[in-house]
Design a protein that fits this description.
Helix content is 44%, strand content 14%. The strands form two sheets. It has a six-stranded mixed beta sheet, with helices on both faces. A three-stranded mixed beta sheet has the order 5-7-8.
């Protein structure tokens, strides 16, 4: 039997591929158990600074495996709960499909991302889509409810009215519209998807690992704070970092590389 998860690590970047192409990478019990365990292992690996998550063509993830859901002893409709029915995956977070982790995850959406697959994508740090990608929330059509943060993360990405439209209709969203709505960071030709995502991951790997983890942690903490407290949350987290972690000498050394990199990137960009 083929592995339901394929993992490749090169140059401090891990590529994780959902590997049930015959089922459009639908989430069966084996995949639900393997994914958080794989991500947890990579998050603990000092040789990995960024993760690219994708699916084996032609799909990113078609959501919950409805055949297994309908079978005797199959998946629970409340598949977001971190319990032993997933094969004892103690690494599963109480929020979403990923375990608690600090390594950024770039979603490389190579095809359809539907229902639970859409939620997988939304839980990534950011998304790059193939021109073949399509997104849909079909929870209401299937008769299950979202449990991996869709009603939190989708409105943050596209706005509440558009999120309600997607969930109430179950309609598919094409890659170009997803870009216009702010759901994805970029749309690229299908053949360029993994190279583009790995290049972005390499940019992340070129930064201070602890610094990347802290700034992303700050984004999450600010998002969860009351609106009037968000500036204070950022200030507190910055003070904690400066007092315990920041090395002025190392910061000065890194600044020289940042200036050189900025000049190179600016000179390579076409005039606006």
């Amino acid at each position: 039997m083929a592995d339901v998860i394929l993992t490749e690590v090169a140059d401090r970047v891990a590529t994780v591929t959902l590997n049930r192409p015959e089922a459009r990478n639908a989430l069966n019990g084996e995949l639900l158990a393997a994914l958080p365990e794989t991500l947890r292992g990579l998050d603990l690996d000092d040789g990995v600074d960024a993760i690219v998550l994708t699916g084996a063509d032609p799909a990113f993830c078609a959501g919950l495996d409805l055949k297994e859901l309908g079978s005797e002893g199959g998946l629970s409709a409340g598949f977001s709960a971190p319990d032993d029915s997933r094969g004892g995956t103690a690494a599963v977070s109480d929020r979403g499909p990923f375990p608690p982790m600090t390594t950024p995850v770039i979603g490389a959406v190579n095809g359809v991302a539907v229902t639970g697959g859409f939620e997988l994508a939304l839980n990534c740090s950011f998304l790059v889509a193939s021109d073949r990608a399509r997104f849909a929330d079909t929870h209401a059509r299937v008769g299950v409810m979202p449990g991996w943060g869709l009603t939190v993360l989708l409105p943050e990405a596209v706005g509440r009215r558009r999120a309600r439209q997607l969930s109430a209709t179950g309609n598919f969203l094409a890659a170009d519209v997803a870009l216009a709505w702010g759901l994805v960071n970029a749309v690229v030709p299908h053949a360029d998807l993994l190279p583009t995502c790995r290049a972005l991951a390499a940019d992340i790997a070129g930064n201070d690992r602890a610094g990347v983890a802290r700034v992303l942690e700050t984004y999450d903490a600010v998002a969860e704070a009351a609106p009037g407290a968000r500036w204070d949350v950022e200030a507190r987290m910055a003070r904690e970092w400066q007092g315990a972690t920041f090395d002025p000498a190392e910061g000065g050394r890194r600044r020289e590389g940042i200036v050189a990199r900025g000049r190179a990137q600016t000179s390579s960009q076409p005039p606006g």
